[in-house]
Structures are given as structure tokens and as C-alpha cells.
Amino acid sequence: MAVDAPYKLAGVMGWPVAHSRSPVIHNHWIAENGLRGAYVLLPVQPQNLEKALRSLPVLGFVGCNLTIPHKVEAVRLIDHIEPMASRIGAVNTIVVEADGSLTGRNTDAYGFIQSLRDAQLGWTAAAGPAVVVGAGGAARAIIVGLIDAGATEIRLTNRSGAKAQDMAQEFGWPVQAVAWDDRHDALGGAALLVNTTSQGMHGEAPLDLRLDSLPVQALVADIIYVPLETPLLAAARQRGYRTANGLGMLLNQARPAFEAWFGVAPILSVALSDRIQATF
Ligand code: ATR
């Protein structure tokens, strides 16, 4: 690598942030592409977010990722926001522009859709109704991703029903709210089931959902990646459904961010997947 090539810094800002796997991903790509730079953890408390963001250009950062609890708050602190991030209402990627201004992007929707395409060759959102379980921040990105991919019907169900109703009203058709008590039957005729709740995560109870009504051709996705196979995905696999775990979304949301910062489109290799799985 050329020693006079620019040294680029990027990182992930969060609180807490020590658990993040993003440094493993981006530092792997930096090395793989022979670039000069580093991707670091940036533990930033919520009250310091604005100062930390404004420090990025001063410190020579090309940008950063944002994670819990900064994704929503950052929207009002940055200079420019891309339409996708604005619709989702959250920013997961900051790009430092040449003039030092900050642009906010959201690559979660892209990452999710791409993970489905990786899991099932020829996957299309138009294959049939999608059922999205959960109505938090992650669900917003997934719904926008599904709408843009051409979904014809999205059934949204959430333990706190009012949140699902509000979101269905905000996005309009093809999103419709389904009562939590009706979630099992809502799987009838669906082509895709997505868990966006924390249920099934390491240390949490499994998602309480019966798969009996779900057609055999359906794809079952979970955005959780610890564990890689949640009880929902294990049950789905045992019943013969195709499944997609959360690692695919994590890897795919990182790709456009890396390309924006380092100017190289990184590849998803088995070596990288193995490296991340070894950290669990
Ligand atoms: P994220 O940004 O990851 O989506 P979030 O905004 O805190 O996180 O949303 C968490 C989601 O998990 C919500 O849909 C939440 O449901 P509520 O809106 O009813 O809180 C869902 N969730 C959390 N615990 C749950 C449980 N025990 N059963 C069902 N859903 C649960």
C-alpha cells in the first residue's frame, strides 16, 4: 500500500458500543483492499452526540455509523439527510463531505432486502404478503425497504397495537395493522415473515408465534444475530421453511457505508462470515 495514500478514519458511535461487530467487518475490508485507515469504536454518551458529530471532520474521519441510542436523535443534528433516511426517521451512516458538512444516510433497508436476496435466489417482494412483527425503529427501516422493493401487502403486528396502527397510518397502503391477538392467523397466505422484535435474542424469551398458517414456500427472516439461529428460525427450519438470519442484514448494511467512505465496493466472503461468527 502506498504510504502517501490518505489515511482514513471511520467508526461506530453508540452507548454502549463495545459489543459492536462493525469494527471486525470494516477493518477486514480495509485490510482486504490494501487501504490505509482504521474503523474504531466511539463510545459517545447521548448528551455528547452533537459535539462528537461535529468533531468528525476535525479529527479526520470520513464518517461513522450510528447505533443505539443515536440513530433517531442524529436526524436533527446533521446538515443534509438522504430521502431514505428521512422516510425511515433514522440515520445509521454519516458521511463527512469535502466541506466538512455531515450527510445522514440509512443503509438498513438496503441491508435487509439484500440479505433476503442472498438467502433466496430470485427473492421478490411481489411474491405475496409480508408479515412484519414489531413496530420499533428496526421495523421502520424494514417496512420502507419492503415498500421500495415492491411489496403489495405488509401486515404489521405489534404487542402494543397502537404503535402498529400509527405506523400503518403514517406509511399508508400497502401497510396495514393486524391486532396482536390475530398474529398467528395473519400468517395465512404470506410469502415472508420477519421478526423485528427483541424476542428470541440471547437472554430473551422466544417470540410467541405459531407457524401453522404460514405457507410452505414462505421465507422466514429474523434480524437478530445473537444467536444466529433464534428459536423462531430453528422452528421454521425444522418445518422446512427457508430462513434468513440477522448476520446477512448486518453485513449488507455495512457495504454501502464502506463504499461511501473508502470508495471501494467491498465483497462478502465466507472468510468474513467465519470471522464474525468466531466472535460469538
Ligand atoms: P428496535 O429499534 O430494535 O426496533 P425498539 O424500538 O425498542 O427496538 O422496538 C422493540 C420491539 O420489540 C417493539 O416492537 C416491541 O414491542 P412494544 O412496542 O410492544 O414494546 C417489541 N417487543 C419487546 N419486547 C416484547 C415482548 N415481550 N413481546 C413482544 N414484542 C416485544
Order of helices and strands: EHEHEEHEEHEHEHEEEHEHH
Major sheet, described briefly?
A: 6 strands, mixed
Number of strands: 12
Taken together, the total number of domains comes to 2
Number of helices: 9
Distance between the termini: 31 Å
CATH architecture label name of the largest domain? 3-Layer(aba) Sandwich
Uncertain segments are none
Query: Quick one: CATH class of the largest domain?
Result: Alpha Beta
Q: In which range does the helix fraction lie?
A: 25-40%
Kindly identify the CATH topology of the largest domain: Rossmann fold
Which whole number gives the mean pLDDT? 97
> What is Rg?
19 Å
Could you give the order of strands across the largest sheet?
2-1-3-5-6-4
| Strand content range | 15-25%
Walk me through what this model shows:
The chain is α/β, with parallel strands linked by helices and 280 residues long. The chain folds into 2 domains: 8-106 and 249-277, Rossmann fold (3-Layer(aba) Sandwich); 109-245, NAD(P)-binding Rossmann-like Domain (Rossmann fold, 3-Layer(aba) Sandwich). The chain contains 9 helices and 12 strands. It has helices at 22-32, 49-58, 83-88, 108-119, 137-148, 161-171, 231-238, 246-262, 270-277; strands at residues 8-14, 37-43, 61-66, 80-81, 93-96, 102-105, 130-133, 154-157, 175-178, 192-195, 219-222, 242-244. The strands form 2 sheets. Strands 2-1-3-5-6-4 form a 6-stranded mixed β-sheet, with helices on both faces. Helix 1 packs across helix 8 and helix 4 (108-119) packs across helix 5 (137-148). The radius of gyration is 19 Å and the shape is globular. The two termini are 31 Å apart. The model has no long low-confidence stretch (mean pLDDT 97). Residues 134-139, 158-160, 163, 196-199 line the site of 2'-monophosphoadenosine-5'-diphosphate.
